[in-house]
Amino acid sequence: MSTLRERIGWQDAGPNSAMPIYLRLREAFKSAIQRGDLQPCDALPGERDLAVSFNVSRVTIRKALSGLVESGLLNQRQGSGTYVCAGPNRVEQALSRLTSFSDDMRLRGLEPSVVWLKREISHATPRQAMRLSLSPNETMCRLKRLRLANGTPMAIETAVVSTRHLSDPYLVENSLYAVLEIDRLSFLDNGAPIEFTHSWYRGDAYDFVAELTLRTTTND
Amino acid sequence: MSTLRERIGWQDAGPNSAMPIYLRLREAFKSAIQRGDLQPCDALPGERDLAVSFNVSRVTIRKALSGLVESGLLNQRQGSGTYVCAGPNRVEQALSRLTSFSDDMRLRGLEPSVVWLKREISHATPRQAMRLSLSPNETMCRLKRLRLANGTPMAIETAVVSTRHLSDPYLVENSLYAVLEIDRLSFLDNGAPIEFTHSWYRGDAYDFVAELTLRTTTND
DNA sequence: GAGTGGTCTAGACCACCAT
DNA sequence: TGGTGGTCTAGACCACTCA
């Protein structure tokens, strides 16, 4: 049984501590999760205990964890605890943000709904095959749906997914990504791209913010 | 001359203060910026002064402001101050995030470069005309470029912009959005969508995170 | 050197969840 | 009821910017 300090590879501030404590802590936890030293569904000690363990204040612990909660690596539930959400599963993590349409609408008191415009299987175009590293005769599910809030069209989403990962477009009800999760392990190991989603959003009703983050591959 | 409390429409916690102070403060500042009561380039008072003005601690002020900094409405510079970044310019705000490719690469010690695959003017397709609320014979700039880091292809971006907003595709060098900013006022007032960008990213090298936020139109 | 944001502390009270 | 995360405070020191 190793201590948490060991599991996340923590060392007290050396002379080379240019980074603030909360960032060093955040990176240490992040690395431990990505290495697998902290497993999904693991519960972290309480914030007060963490503060004692690492000789910092609870505020610093919270600042360290908050970034990981925001990026989806951790999950905090008031009254319950802090839990590891997911390993280095960047595809599922990234796409999970896109499922929030329904949640977003409901949070604002609007009733979300979906009209399916297309659900079919066809061959990949040469371009898609090239981009997604597929053989030219690979079959693809093509999904297209209109998203509404209180009956008002808000977005059109088009998704193309290899049938290797989604065998039947009619498996998808509300969340494409919930279905894809089933296949998580099969396509995450090699990191190959598996899906492309293409969306139009109402410019007068949405902020659309996209962020890119280069994946930092840690070898240790 | 009105006080800052008045400009952001602040009122001390009434009995109906279900939201925490830092969120109410954040919303008040956000609304003031979007209404134009706080203008771009305006400097905010120092955090210590704000804390006194609103009868809260500096930590609470910082927590309120941090969300606005993160979403690009405010800009903080150590040793200098806090400044209003942009008005209710959601198109420019959203797209500005996408310009970060070069910055991202450089931050990580990689040299970004661009290979143009297409820069042309043609007519809008019927579908595009419909989606972007254009007349059917509207002309569009079509831009397609390959993004590289240290010579390795990392992303392909395709952008389609009405010539009303971008007269010549050769005006675009590195940042499409820098060029579009010139036209900012002309297309932001009506909130019409003006552009569609379509990008492929290397699944093995990128995290791609997209967030949607419903625009909350505050009338007061 | 005065003022700014960036970090950090030790303590407090609350709402919530579990048992 | 005891532990959890969520919020908030008053104060401190630092690095930085700018005149």
Describe the protein in words.
The structure is a homodimer of 220-residue chains. The relative contact order of chain A is 0.11. Chain A has 220 residues and is of the alpha+beta class. The first copy, chain A, has helices spanning 4-7, 21-35, 47-53, 58-70, 90-96, 100-107, 126-131, 176-182, 184-188, and strands at residues 43-44, 74-77, 81-84, 112-123, 139-149, 152-162, 195-201, 206-214. Chain A has two domains: 4-84, Winged helix-like DNA-binding domain superfamily/Winged helix DNA-binding domain (Arc Repressor Mutant, subunit A, Orthogonal Bundle); 91-209, Chorismate lyase. In chain A, the strands form two sheets. In chain A, strands 4-5-6-7 form a four-stranded antiparallel sheet. In chain A, strands 1-3-2 form a three-stranded antiparallel sheet. Chain A binds chain B through residues 59, 90-91, 93-94, 97-98, 100-101, 104-105, 108, 110, 131, 149, 156, 190-194, 196, 198, 200-216, and chain B through 59, 71, 90-91, 93-94, 97-98, 100-101, 104-105, 108, 131, 156, 190-194, 196, 198, 200-216. Strand 8 (206-214) of chain A pairs antiparallel with strand 8 (206-214) of chain B, so a sheet runs across the interface. Chain A binds a DNA duplex (19 and 19 nucleotides) through residues 20-22, 46-48, 56-60, 62-63, 76-82.
